Amino acid sequence: MSKKRIEWIDVAKAVGIVAVVFGHAMTRHGTMFHFLYWWHMPIFFIMGGFFLKPIVNNNWIGFFKKRILPLLISYLICGGFLILLSHFIRGESWSYTIFYFARLLYGGRTLNHYLSVFWYINVYLLALVFTSIVITYVKNREAQIIVAFASLIIATSYKHIYFLSFKYVPWDFDVAFIAMFFMLFGYLYFHKIQQFVKDLWVIVPAAMLTVWLFWMQHMDRFNFAFFLKSKIIHASYHHIPISRVSYITFIPIIVCLVVFSASYYFCKFMPQFLIKPVQLLGQQTLGIMYLHKAVIDIIDEAGYNGAIMETILAVLISFILSLGYGYAKRKIKNSRIRRSIS
């Protein structure tokens, strides 16, 4: 494990992916369900902006080879595997399965069942490209902030659009502009976030505010729903509709700061034998993101329903499979290197 890695970021990724799995395992859509959806996807887009850099000398080919192509390959490999797995386990017809491969290419909201979370990779890849374009060609920091807010305002100004005669936009293209807001936030304020996570004068009020927001949601004093994939966003206070943009720019970021700080203090005070497994879990979030929905669905079809146990099993099984996939990929890569040398 590289010493250059920032431990609390890996831990925050682990917290985020467990929240994602728990949200998908829950059958009761109450306060906790809504609370998880406030932040468990934005936190990955925010962290996705932490280490972004402007493209030097317009080397977009290098950027695509390093940042885009590996994710795209994993998307197609894992997607194809899960489509075939779904065919045999769910007893789907070959015509349905073959057409699903076309849906995998179209992406976004057309993906369901085992692949229902694959929209995230579509949006993440698009947000990476959009954000990199902004930070490369828009040099002024204030202008970058304006672009971030403009993309959020425009993307949330309507509920739904059609693409040609199709109901859904390819790759949830319009959702990527909401994701770009969070990614730009992570890029612009990473150094501030590193300071805030240690500052109890910031984090304690933020944590108290998070608890208060949770309680107000539970008591139905206000209602905030934030579902990125389907772009279902609504906000009201005492049942009076209010600006959705103000809630999106405020609540997810506040909760994410609390999660970042909790992760930081976990790494500061806990022994390494507890930190390392959680950190390793955080380094396998992509594999868990791909696989956990299939594991949950298979457990459900087996007749077992229990959100906590499903979450534990889905995280562990997906984690082990992700490690196995990474090990096999490294073995193949090393074998090719040895053959090329010899």
Walk me through what this model shows.
By secondary structure, the protein is mainly alpha-helical. The protein has one domain. 71% of the residues lie in helices and 4% in strands. The protein has 13 helices and 3 strands. It has a 3-stranded antiparallel β-sheet with strand order 1-2-3. The longest helix is centred in the last third of the chain and has 35 residues, at 307-341. The protein is globular. The relative contact order is 0.15. The mean pLDDT is 91.
> How are the strands of the largest sheet arranged?
1-2-3
* Number of separate strands: 3
What portion of the residues fall into strands of 2 or more residues?
under 5%
Annotation field: number of helices: 13
Helix content: over 70%
Largest sheet: 3 strands, antiparallel
Shape: globular
Keywords: Acyltransferase, Membrane, Transferase, Transmembrane, Transmembrane helix
InterPro entries: Acyl_transf_3_dom (IPR002656), Nod_factor_acetyltransferase (IPR052734)
Organism: Lentilactobacillus parakefiri
Protein name: Acyltransferase
